[in-house]
Amino acid sequence: MTNNTKEMFGDLLLDKKIVTALTEMGFEEPSPIQRETIPIVLEGNDVIGQAQTGTGKTAAFGIPIVQNITDHRHIQALVMTPTRELAIQVAEEIGKIGQTKRIKALPVYGGQPIDRQIRSLRSGVQIVIGTPGRLLDHIRRATIKLDNIKFLVVDEADEMLDMGFVEDMEEIMKNLPAERQTLLFSATMPRPILSLTKKYMKAPKLVAIHKEVVTAPSVDQFYYETKDKVDGLCRLLDVEINGKLIIFCRTKKGVDELVIALGTRGYLAEGLHGDLSQNQRDRVMKKFRAGRVDILIATDVAARGLDIENITHVVNFDIPQDPESYVHRIGRTGRAGNKGVALTFITPREFRQLKLIEKAVNIKIIRRQLPTEANVLERQREMIVSKLQSVLDQNNYNDYLPIISSLLKDYNPEEVAAAAVKLMQEGNKALEAPAETTIAPDLGNTGAKPGMVRMFINIGRSQKITVKDIIQSIAIEADVPGKDIGMISIYDKFTFVEVPEEVAEKVLAVMHRNTIKGYKVNVEPARARD
Ligand code: ADP
Ligand code: MG
C-alpha cells in the first residue's frame, strides 16, 4: 500500500450502516490495529491483539462484532473487562457503533443492583460487557444465557490477570459454546495469558502493533529538579498550569498523600487508585470529566485504559519507572491535534533515571527552573490586573462607587485602590496587623474564601459522612447557623469545611476531639501556603 491509497473503513467490507455510524462518531480512517484486526475477525478467526492503550482496540473488536450480530434479541457477544469504568466505556463505544443497526449493548458490573440489570437484560440486548464476577453471577442465575454466544472478547487481558480474575475468566470460557470466536486484547502478553489463549482459543491469529517509541511531537516535555516536590508543584499550579491535568504518582499511598497535601493548600484534586471501590472510581471520573475538578492524581495502573479528553498537562510527580510508562503517561495529553505539556519532577538522585528515559525514548526533556516565590506573586498580580481591566471594561460597577466616595473623604484614590488590590491578593491576611503577634497564626491563610477559615476534619466518605452530618454537628455543637457554613468538600478519608472567621476559634475549640457520627475527630485549620 502506498501513501496515497490510505485504506478507509468502507474498504474493509463493512455494512453501509456501520460506516455511517463510524462517520457520525468522527472516525475518518481505521487505526492500525483496526485495519489489521477487522478483516481477520470477519473471516471467522480467533484473534490475539496486542497494542498500546489508546490505539482503538475497542472498535477493533466492536466493529466486526456489530457487523456479525443479527437483530435477534438474544445475547450474541460477551465482553469481559477488568473494571466497571471500562465496561461502561466499552459499552458506550459499541452502542455507538451499533446505533444505526439498532444493536443494544449493556454494561453489567458489581455494585449496581442486580435486579435492574436483570430487567435490562430481559429487554433484549445482543452484547453484554461486564466484569468477570458479575458476568458469572448472571450466568449462574441464567439471566445471561450462553447458548447463542458467537463472540467472546477478553479486553485488557493483562490487567484482568493482575486483578486476579483468571479463575472467573476460565469458568466463563469453559461454559461457552465451542462454536464461537474468541478475541483477546492486551497491552502486554505475559506467560499466563499465552497459556489461556492456548487452552481456549482456536488457531488464533496474532496482530501486534509495535509500539512507536517516538513520543507524540505535539507534547512539550520539561523537567524540574527539586527536593520539595509538593512546593514545586504548587508553584507550577499557581504560575504555569491552567487546564485539566493528570498527576502520576508511583504508589497508592503517594496518591492519597498528594491529594491531602494539595487539598490542605487549597487546590481541589481527586485521587484514583486500585483501593477505591468501583463507586468511588465512578464518582471521581464523573467529576473530572465534567470539569468539576481539574486535577486528577493517579497511579499508572488506575489510569490505564481510561480514555479522557482534553488533558492539557501530564505531571510526573514521581518519575516513571521505565521508558514505556513515560510514553504511556505523556500520551494522555496532546491528543487530537491539541498541544500538550508533560512536566516531570525529579529529585537530584533521579537524574540518571531521567537520562535513561531520554535515551530509550530518543527525545530531549528540557530542564526548567521552578517559578520563584516572586514569580508566583508576579503572576498573581498579572491576574489581578487583567481581572480588574475586564471589570473596568464592562463598565457596570456603579453600585460600588458610593463606597469609594465615602472612603475618599479620608483617603486618596491611589490608597483606596491599592488597599482593594491588597485585599484581593492576600485575602484575610491583608487584615492582619503586620507586627502584632496573632493569637491563632494558623488561621491566617487556610486557602478559604475571604472572611472564611478552612478547617480540615480527619473523617470523610469512608466513614459515611455526609454534608448534612457536617452541617448538623457544627450547627448544634458550636452553635453556628447552618446557613453561615461555607463550602464543604468531602473526600474519602477527610473533609474540608469553611466557617466564618468570627466563629473559627469556637468551632475549633468545640469540635476538636469531639465526635461526628460516633467518630472521634481531629479538626484543625487547613494549612495553605502563604
Ligand atoms: P484502547 O482500547 O486501545 O486503549 P480505545 O478503544 O479506548 O483504545 O480508543 C481510544 C480513543 O480513540 C477513543 O476515544 C476512541 O473513540 C478513539 N478512536 C478509536 N478508533 C478511532 C478511529 N479509527 N478514528 C478516530 N478515533 C478513534
Ligand atoms: Mg481498551
The neighbouring-strand order within the major sheet is 3-4-2-5-6-1-7
CATH topology of the largest domain: Rossmann fold
**Number of distinct beta strands:** 20
The separation of the N and C termini measures: 61 Å
Task: Count every helix, treating DSSP H or I runs of 4 or more residues as helices.
Answer: 20
What is the quaternary state of this protein? single chain
Main pleated sheet: 7 strands, parallel
Shape: globular
CATH architectural type of the largest domain: 3-Layer(aba) Sandwich
Q: What compounds are bound to the protein?
A: adenosine-5'-diphosphate, magnesium ion
- CATH superfamily placement of the largest domain: P-loop containing nucleotide triphosphate hydrolases
Overall helicity: 40-55%
Radius of gyration from the alpha-carbon trace, in angstroms: 28 Å
Structural class: alpha/beta
Provide an overview of this structure.
- With 530 residues, the chain is α/β, with parallel strands linked by helices.
- The chain folds into four domains: 6-208, 3-Layer(aba) Sandwich (Rossmann fold); 219-371, P-loop containing nucleotide triphosphate hydrolases (Rossmann fold), CATH 3.40.50.300; 374-431, no CATH class; 452-525, Alpha-Beta Plaits (2-Layer Sandwich).
- The protein contains 20 helices and 20 strands.
- The chain has helices spanning 16-24, 32-42, 57-68, 84-97, 114-122, 132-141, 157-162, 166-174, 191-200, 229-239, 252-264, 278-290, 300-303, 323-330, 351-361, 373-394, 401-407, 413-426, 467-478, 501-511, and strands spanning 47-50, 77-80, 105-108, 127-130, 151-154, 181-186, 205-208, 219-225, 245-248, 269-272, 295-298, 313-316, 340-346, 366-367, 452-457, 488-490, 495-500, 515-516, 519-520, 523-525.
- The strands form four sheets. Strands 3-4-2-5-6-1-7 form a seven-stranded parallel β-sheet, sandwiched between helices. A seven-stranded parallel β-sheet has the order 10-11-9-12-13-8-14, sandwiched between helices.
- A hairpin with a 2-residue loop joins strand 18 and strand 19.
- Helix 3 (57-68) packs across helix 4 (84-97).
- The radius of gyration is 28 Å and the shape is globular.
- The termini are far apart.
- The protein binds adenosine-5'-diphosphate (ADP) and magnesium ion.
- Adenosine-5'-diphosphate binds next to helix 3.
- The site of adenosine-5'-diphosphate (ADP) has 15 residues, from helix 3.
